[in-house]
Design goal:
Elements: E1 5-7, E2 10-12, E3 16-19, H1 26-36, E4 40-44, E5 69-73, H2 80-93, E6 99-102, H3 115-127, E7 131-136, H4 140-148, E8 153-156, H5 170-179, E9 185-187, H6 193-201, E10 206-209, H7 211-214, H8 219-239
Parallel strand pairs: 3-4, 3-10, 4-5, 6-7, 7-8, 9-10
Antiparallel strand pairs: 1-2
Helix pairs in contact: 1-8, 2-3, 4-5, 6-8
């Protein structure tokens, strides 16, 4: 573990976080999750069964708690009360689990966050003892306010959820990274492996994705590709890329050669 991702004091080998929705069945979700190498897996409490419906398939049967850190999320919540209630339900179902992903949506078409409501919900949940990883827009000012409210990780979107458009505002993401004192993870908008690599090369601490894997023609193979791209992007960031130049520069110098 030479370069761990640290969230709320816990170290993780993988910087790729994945979701569990949109797969054709639980077996495909299981195989794609394994191929991704992810250690943190997010689940939509309002849409997934983790024990609240005993007569239905339980997601925990394929995502055992001794292997994965579950990240319950508030997907589908459009107001503060619903988001807070959903987090409290997750904590009850998971025996006091306090790490959650907060999202309060403001628009059904774009699924952009309602940042004012998100900040209000974050403040309530932090006071209630939750460790909040928060989905937000790519506004550096709001990112800093959410950090100051006590969120343990900031998760700006790269593009609308499920759009696959890639990193639309890289300089905004870069500004958030450079000013954050908590992990920054790109959440939403990644469409393919090159998008993941570009995000990691900006210096983000990790990426969360679901649709980019689940909607691929071969989700298991795409999950493996995303794992590799996340690793490669992180390594490239740490290595430091060469300066961009307007003109060619010979790979082999000619000084001192004989003609």
């Amino acid at each position: 573990m030479n370069d761990p991702l640290v969230i709320a004091g816990v170290e993780y080998n993988s910087r790729l976080l994945v979701g569990t929705g949109k797969y054709k069945d639980m077996q495909e979700s299981k195989l794609a999750t394994e191929a991704s190498g992810a250690e943190i897996v997010t689940i939509a409490i309002r849409r997934s069964n983790i024990g609240q419906n005993p007569d239905e398939p339980n997601l925990l049967d394929i995502l055992p708690l001794d292997k994965y850190t579950l990240l319950p999320n508030t997907a589908g919540c459009y107001n503060v009360d619903d988001a807070v209630r959903t987090c409290r339900l997750a904590r009850e179902l998971l025996d006091g689990h306090d790490l959650v992903k907060l999202e309060v949506l403001g628009d059904e078409k774009t699924l952009f966050p309602d940042v004012a409501a998100t900040l209000q919900a974050a403040e309530i949940l932090v006071k209630d003892g939750f460790k909040i990883m928060v989905y937000t827009n790519d506004d550096p000012i709001m990112a800093k306010r959410l950090e100051e409210a006590g969120c343990v990780a900031i998760m700006p979107l790269a593009a609308p959820i499920g759009s696959g458009l890639g990193i639309r505002n890289p300089y905004n993401i870069l500004e958030i990274v450079e000013n954050a004192n908590v992990p920054v993870l790109v959440d939403a908008g990644v469409g393919t492996a090159s998008d993941a690599a570009i995000a990691m090369e900006l210096g983000v601490d990790g990426i969360l994705m679901n649709t980019a894997i689940a909607a691929a023609q071969d989700p298991v193979l795409m999950a493996h590709a995303m794992k590799n791209a996340t690793i490669a992007g992180r390594q490239a960031f740490k290595a430091g890329r060469m300066p961009r130049k307007r003109y060619a520069s010979a790979s082999s110098p000619i000084d001192g050669t004989f003609f």
